[in-house]
Specification:
Elements (H helix, E strand, L loop, with lengths): L2 E8 L1 H5 L3 H10 L3 E8 L3 H7 L9 H8 L4 E9 L1 H9 L12 H5 L8 E3 L3 H11 L10
Antiparallel strand pairs: 1-3, 1-4, 2-3
The chain binds ribavirin triphosphate and magnesium ion.
Length: about 140
């Protein structure tokens, strides 16, 4: 299996709860490594563009409000099978359904304030990484 990259966000509930280090440690202990990172406060326009696929969903406004309510940690993670590995480590969207030991089970508050975002496919990862990072901001070990 080739090394691949995926995109991750530590959402405002977890930056505010001081869980940035715990969540990064979780990735690092489970085979993913940081290939790029920045701490930021998203503008409304940037958050709306990121979640454009959810524009017609009833929770879109709430989602954008939440994602702009505090700082976020934007990260590119890399490792074997990184996209699916990250989704497994995150757990189900709703923490009530998330498996024991997953990031959302450990740190999420609700289906909205669910601690982390992770790309759901290699195609999404490519778009999301390019949406936030310049090529020169990423390590290139492989
Ligand atoms: P993400 O994109 O953040 O990694 O999460 P996901 O794939 O597990 O979930 P997705 O269906 O893509 O939804 C994106 C984010 O929208 C919020 N959401 N709120 N109130 C609701 O019913 C609801 N449903 C989804 C969550 O923050 C979810 O992560
Ligand atoms: Mg999603």
């Amino acid at each position: 299996m080739a090394i691949e990259k995926t995109f991750s966000i530590i959402k405002p509930n977890s930056t505010l709860d001081n869980n940035i280090g715990n969540i990064i440690a979780h990735f690092e202990k489970n085979g993913l490594r940081i290939a790029g990172a920045k701490f930021a406060k998203l503008s409304k326009e940037k958050a709306e563009g990121f979640y454009i696929e959810h524009k017609e969903r009833p929770f879109f406004g709430e989602l954008v409000n939440f994602m702009t309510s505090g700082p976020v940690m934007l990260m590119v993670l890399e490792g074997e099978n990184a996209v699916m590995k990250n989704r497994e480590l995150m757990g189900a969207t709703n923490p009530a359904n998330a498996a024991e030991g997953t990031i959302r089970k450990l740190y999420a508050k609700s289906v909205g304030e669910n601690s982390v975002h992770g790309s759901d496919s290699a195609t999404a990862a490519e778009r999301e990484i390019a949406y936030f990072f310049e090529r020169s901001e990423l390590t290139n070990r492989f």
